Amino acid sequence: MRKAIMQELLTEYEAQRQRNRDEEMRRRQEAERLCPELGGVLDARQGVIFAGLRGILGGEATAGDIPAQIDVLNRRVAALLRQHDLPENYLDPVYRCPVCKDTGYVGEPIREQCECLRAAFYTRLYRRVGLGEAAEQSFERFDLNVFFAQKLPGKNYSQRDVMGVFRAKCEEWSAKYPTVAARDVFMMGQSGLGKTYLMHAMAKALLQRGFSVMLISAYRFLDTARKAYFSGSSEEMDVLMDADVLMIDDMGSEPLMENVTISQWFNLINERQQRGRATVISTNLMEDEIRRRYTERIASRLLNNPGQCMLLQFLGDDVRGRKP
Question: pTM of the full predicted structure?
Answer without folding.
Answer: 0.67
